[in-house]
Every structure is written in structure tokens, then in C-alpha cells.
Amino acid sequence: MVSIQDIKIEPKLPERVRHGPQVIPFFKGGYRITLIDKDGNTVEELAPINGIEFAGNEDNLAQSENVRFTRACSECTVLLERQALEWGKSYRFRSCADVNVLETVPGNIC
User: Fold this and answer.
1) What are the backbone dihedrals phi and psi of residue 56, each rounded to the nearest 5 degrees, phi first?
2) CA–CA gap between residue 35 and residue 99 (Å, rounded)
3) What average pLDDT does the segment 43-48 reach?
4) What is the pLDDT of residue 55?
5) Is 99 exposed, middle or buried, given 0-12, 13-18 or 19+ CB atoms closer than 10 A?
6) How far apart are CA 46 and CA 56, in angstroms?
7) Whose CA is closest to 27, among 75, 2, 72, 61?
8) Residues 6+ away with beta carbon under 8 Å from 39
């Protein structure tokens, strides 16, 4: 369970790849993080929040993002979607996590 508060999403990813004598960034493109309900409808766009389609295009080595849930959501999914421009314009990699976003954290969960 997750409460409505700031959280840090931190996937562990390789940062760079060696190409001959050069070390180059491994990823090209940005990412977005979305909270969706059990029917697949968007509840909240967590990143980017400024209206652009993908965040992180300026820093493709970013390894984490602070997000804030502002709405409770039962039986929902956090969807992390990354552009994979190194593979082509239409490639996307997706990772998901099932979550229950609560207004408050119950006192007896631990």
C-alpha cells in the first residue's frame, strides 16, 4: 500500500555502454509515469506533469523521479514507460506495479 505523499521511484538501470574506446549513454529518449485504474483508464499523470509527452529527454541518464500521488486509487497500477529511441521511434519499454494508493496509512500495517 502507498499513501498520498511524495515517493521516489528508482529503477536500477545500466547507465552507459562501452562502444570501442568510447563510453556512451546507453539510453535515448524519455520516460513517463502514470497511475491507471483496474480498467486501464488514466487516474493521474505522475511524470511529466508539465504537459510534455515524455520527461527526461534532456538527461537520459536519470535513474529516479520524485512523484506525488494526489488521489486515492484502489486496485491500481503504476506504469513506467520509457522511450527506447535507440531501437527506433516507436519502441517503448514498460514496467508495472500493482498499488493501492490510500488517503492515510493504517497504523497497524507493520
Assistant:
1) 80, 5
2) 9
3) 90
4) 77
5) middle
6) 13
7) 61
8) none
Higher pLDDT, 24 or 88: 88
Whether cis (ω within 30° of 0) applies to the bond prior to 48 is yes
Q: How many CB atoms lie within 10 A of CB 76?
A: 22
Q: What one-character DSSP code corresponds to residue 104?
A: S
Instruction: Return the percentage of the chain with pLDDT > 70, whole number.
Output: 66
- Helical segments of the chain, H only: none
C-alpha cell at 7: 515517493
Task: Tell whether the model's pLDDT for residue 78 goes beyond 70.
Answer: yes
> Which domains does the chain possess?
2-100 (2.60.40)
Q: What mean pLDDT is predicted for residues 34-47?
A: 93
- Please check whether residue 4 is in contact with residue 101, taking contact to mean a CB–CB distance below 8 angstroms: yes
Strands 73-83 and 42-47, by their bridges, are unpaired
